[in-house]
Design goal:
The chain has 681 residues and is of the alpha/beta class. Helix content is 40%, strand content 16%. The chain has 22 helices and 15 strands. Bound molecules: zinc ion. The site of zinc ion has 6 residues, from loops.
Length: 681
Amino acid sequence: MIMKPCTFLLAIATSYLLLLVNATPKSTYHSLFISNSLSDNASIANHLQILTRRPHIAGSEANAEAAVYVRSVLTSFNIPTHFASYQVSLTLPLSRSLVLTNSPAPETATNFTLRQEIYKGDPYADVADQAVPTFHAYAKSGAATGPVVYANYGREEDYLTLTQIGINVSGVVIYSDRKDCGGAGKARWFPDDKWLPPSGVQVGSVFLGKGDPTTPGWPSCGECERLTHDEVEKRGDVPLIPSLPVSGEDGDKILKSIGGPVAKDDWQGSQDAPTYRVGPGPGILHLNYTGQDIIATIQNVIGVIEGEEEPDRFVILGNHRDAWSYGAVDPNSGTAALLEVAERLRKLQKRGWKPRRTIILCNWDAEEYGLIGSTEWVEENREILASRAVAYLNVDAAVGGPEGFQTSATPQLDELIKRATQQIKDPDNSSQTIYDSWTGSSSSPVIGRLGGGGSDYAAFLQHVGIPAAGIFFGSTGYPVYHSLYDDFTWMQNFGDPMFQRHVAAASVWGLVALWLADEEFIPFDYVSYVKELQLSFKVLENEISNKDINLTPILTSIKEFEKAAIMIKNQRKKLEASKGWTTKKEDHYFKVRELNDRLMMAERAFTDRDGLFGMSWYKHLIYGRSKHNGYGSQSFPGIDDAVIIAKDTKTVESWLRVQHEVWRVSRVIKQVSLVLSGQLT
Ligand SMILES: [Zn+2]
């Protein structure tokens, strides 16, 4: 009789204690994360200024110094941080020359300086020499001489036009046309305007693979197996003719030396440009390039915030650090945003927040050469990532101008990204949300897909099958891309003067990560994935006119996928409703965990051991590299490539291969349904 009230009191006391411990729900921390009180645009600007004070190409001392900076900032936020280093094969230019003769007369010759001019008042003039001379990474060493031909953007279809008039190419010069980078003829450029100065050159890599070219599929750690230069060339991912990038100004001079037939309308330049002709000649170009292969040490910086309840489930955020020059837009606007996310997470931790799952912050090296840092790390940790990674959230450049928000993602993340942008104000119009501006007058916003291999998501998604997304504020075609003028001054004057776009990028990136790390149920919506595949299927149907190809297997597997996606949604609802009522706490935990595992592993099932035809590193059969469109983002790259070959060769065998690729895609979609439903056949 006396005991009962005591027990009763004790019970109250216990629940009161529990209430104290769990006083702040996770959602309160999430709202706090995106509030003005936690964001700090001055700190973002400061990080960016420090990261971009010198040119810092991969393998350089300046980039190693930047790695130390990123590590020290993360460590100062109490985030345990380490380097993941690799020895990788990079290339640097040893000698370059480009001479134009026979224009306007046989005796004249122009020897291009191949230098980007320092601008008036350039605060970085004293370190500009540390920038790598303009070149193409992994270009073939050699010489080429011949009459000049104009090839538009040098796309597959452009070369086809040239082949039709019997032209064989022995060297490539890529220039930046004013139509795209120079303000369409306006004679104003950086530092007076945002446009690329006439001597500006877009540096880049001509390697088509992913990761260190000498260690395809395995990590470049210390003493390891390595392909020779000849073996790399035989694999077909590096060009076999020399090339150089040049400025718009040099491009103009070369274009003026070309006679012959007038180029097609869509090959012409801006309105004030002279008429472009196709050639060949009479101008003759003499191109000489010698590159040097080096083995360099690169450093990824990895910070780990361990999860409290599910430390073996990873939500990974990544951005690269290396740049062709100062990299204020590409990539250090993203690095500054990453450090801002880390700082806000630290502020949450001080208020008592701990993530349910582990959050990993990654700062990659040697992305510009061919996604090397991220790829080597994923290859080294492949199996552990395959069994534990929930999602990979990439930000390459975070901000490139005022043109608004854009994103690309695997479709189960669509709803989550929309939800995040609905909670965050547009940095350029505080009267509405990012979602409102992003959607504009359409009924729903445009979400890109991750088919091409443009950034560090590639190894996570296309090699291992980890759901992935990328976000960016601005226009991807910002004018100073990969040039000497992508510096802090450009960002401060044109890219993001108030650094509010950086703040917004950190908010979206961090909020999506927090939801993935903290919500009891992983917030994936596979019904969106089904809808996306249905759309891709329609595109495919239109593309394949051959009536002998049977597309029904894909249609059937998408229908099964739809059933499984709806089923797991209902199972989740049921489990949520039963919480604390019909299930014991541990039982509930394991049931949730089992359902989450199915959500996490479903994307892996889109991968196939054999990978894409002739490109076995690319395991994902829905999103991957298409041989015919490196930056494209269409679905079903394997089918696409087979169709292009079949349409070209028109043989029975080539159409049989299309049918085979159709079957393969249908089989991986079927695997996804089985993983989602968790049922053996
Ligand atoms: Zn980049």
